[in-house]
């Protein structure tokens, strides 16, 4: 008798390095250095050498928001069954939009599954990598503000 097994649902981290295994770009960082915002793409884009080259001197994670399968316990932001980055983001950051953004990864997003709408209302201000992060951003990232 064969067991009927169902694969667990895919859960994506919404803030991976664009060069991570399986990464897909779903947003582009726009705005001034003081007020960065993610512009969500209408469809997911696979990471290609051509897209990475478009960032010029900037690191891809300064320009793109990318998602890839969540590493769970393989990530420094994961404890138990929880993404602590998502918890800190919701606890420490104010919402920057009043409605859910048109995001292509919501159905697989770790942050949305864990924190719901509260994560989505803060997500547009998250930049995976910043050259000059504020004390707040460092705290959300789990680093000690300097």
Descriptive labels:
alpha+beta; 6 helices; Nitrogen fixation protein; globular; four-stranded antiparallel β-sheet; 146 residues
What's a quick, concise take on this entry?
The protein is of the alpha+beta class and 146 residues long.
Written description of the protein model:
With 146 residues, this protein is of the alpha+beta class. The chain has six helices and six strands; from the N terminus they run βββααβββαααα. The strands form two sheets. It has a four-stranded antiparallel sheet. It has a two-stranded antiparallel ribbon with strand order 5-6. It starts with 11 loop residues before the first strand and ends in a 6-residue tail after the last helix. This is Nitrogen fixation protein.
Extended strand count: 6
Strand order of the largest sheet: 1-4-2-3
Largest sheet: 4 strands, antiparallel
Form type: globular
Q: From the alpha carbons, calculate the radius of gyration and give it in angstroms.
A: 16 Å
Structural class: alpha+beta
Number of helices: 6
């Amino acid at each position: 008798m064969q067991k009927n097994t169902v694969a667990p649902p895919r859960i994506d981290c919404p803030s991976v390095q664009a060069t991570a295994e399986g990464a897909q770009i779903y947003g582009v960082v726009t705005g001034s250095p003081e007020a960065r915002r993610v512009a969500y793409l209408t469809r997911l884009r696979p990471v290609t050498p051509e897209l990475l080259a478009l960032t010029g001197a900037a690191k891809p994670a300064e320009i793109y928001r990318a998602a890839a399968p969540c590493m769970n316990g393989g990530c420094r932001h994961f404890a138990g069954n929880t993404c602590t980055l998502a918890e800190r983001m919701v606890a420490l950051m104010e919402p920057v939009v009043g409605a859910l953004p048109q995001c292509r990864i919501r159905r697989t997003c770790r942050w949305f599954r864990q924190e719901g709408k509260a994560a989505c209302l803060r997500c547009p201000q998250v930049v995976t990598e910043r050259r000059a992060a504020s004390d707040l951003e460092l705290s959300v990232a789990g680093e000690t503000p300097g």
